């Protein structure tokens, strides 16, 4: 009986090579209003810095200040107790 290890390796390689890889790149110039930055007002008593969960940007909030937040981070910011969307 022959070894089937080479056939398995060829099959695995063939599957991996033929599998399409899906990528998503949002269209920056689409003009879609839903993709624009959102403005949040900070209602907390002391200054705070919050890192955007998707973009990695650090947003600095001072008491009573409004800060523009990237669209991809805005939904996570809505969960913050002291931030209110404008």
Please render the helix and strand layout as text.
Blueprint: H1 5-18, E1 38-42, E2 48-51, E3 58-61, E4 66-69, H2 71-77, E5 83-85
What can you tell me about this protein's structure?
This protein has 86 residues and is α+β, with helices and mostly antiparallel strands. The protein has a domain at 36-86. It has helices at 5-18, 71-77; strands at residues 38-42, 48-51, 58-61, 66-69, 83-85. A three-stranded antiparallel beta sheet has the order 4-1-5. A two-stranded antiparallel ribbon has the order 2-3.
Largest sheet: 3 strands, antiparallel
Q: How is the quaternary structure best described?
A: single chain
Outline the low-pLDDT stretches.
15-25
Radius of gyration: 23 Å
Count of discrete alpha- or pi-helical segments spanning 4 or more residues: 2
Cα distance spanning the termini? 73 Å
| Mean pLDDT across all amino acids | 78
* Backbone structural class: alpha+beta
Q: How large is the share of residues in beta strands?
A: 15-25%
Topology pattern, helix = H, strand = E = HEEEEHE
- The count of strands amounts to 5
Give the overall silhouette.
elongated
Q: How would you write the strand order of the largest sheet? A: 4-1-5
């Amino acid at each position: 009986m022959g070894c089937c290890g080479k056939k398995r390796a060829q099959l695995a390689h063939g599957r991996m090579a033929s599998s399409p890889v899906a990528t998503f790149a949002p269209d920056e110039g689409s003009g879609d209003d839903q993709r624009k930055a959102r403005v949040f007002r900070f209602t907390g008593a002391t200054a705070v810095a919050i890192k955007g969960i998707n973009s990695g940007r650090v947003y600095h909030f001072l008491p009573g200040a409004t800060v523009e937040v990237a669209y991809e981070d805005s939904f996570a910011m809505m969960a913050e107790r002291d931030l209110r969307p404008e």
